[in-house]
Design a protein that fits this description.
By secondary structure, the chain is mostly helical. The chain has one domain. The protein is built from six helices and no strands. It is globular, with a radius of gyration of 19 Å. The chain starts with a helix and ends with a helix.
């Protein structure tokens, strides 16, 4: 539990400085940092319980992108302001590094490392696409409900 909290706070700090690097407006720094820290904490909490980390990457990314969409609506800012810095702690950097190292060294361990890294990236992309589709459908539903209510009100 203490390790989870430590990584949570470290990822909040890392996301905060990444957000500064990406020039996130000042009012978006705290929400972006909390989104990144929470997403990484979800990833860490789900990782030991699943045999494949792809599920943990999917749900953590799904959480980050949903929160980004919510904060984008609340703060009237683009969702990418929250998504891009928030997702950086999740990027499987060590997997990418090991894949390239095995590729350069021409060792036989590349297949497992590359497969795990590719599956993690695909899971993250699937979560982002799913969130985008859900958000678009919910927005269309809300818009159609308001137009129907407007017509009935006249």
């Amino acid at each position: 539990m203490i390790i989870l909290l430590t990584y949570f706070f470290l990822s909040i700090i890392a996301t905060f400085f990444i957000a500064i690097l990406f020039r996130v407006p000042k009012k978006g720094l705290l929400p972006t940092s909390l989104i990144g820290g929470s997403g990484y904490a979800i990833f860490l909490a789900l990782s030991p319980g699943t045999s494949n980390q792809m599920v943990a990457y999917f749900f953590a990314t799904f959480f980050i992108t949903i929160c980004s969409e919510v904060f984008a609506r609340i703060m009237k800012m683009p969702a990418t302001i929250f998504t891009v810095p928030g997702i950086i702690p999740l990027v499987p950097g060590i997997g990418l590094y090991n894949t390239m190292m095995h590729l350069v060294q021409n060792s036989g361990n590349i297949s497992q490392t590359a497969t795990d890294t590719l599956l993690a990236v695909v899971a993250m992309a699937m979560a982002m696409v799913l969130t985008s589709l859900l958000t678009k459908n919910i927005n269309n539903l809300i818009t159609s409900l308001f137009t129907k209510l407007k017509i009935k009100g006249k």
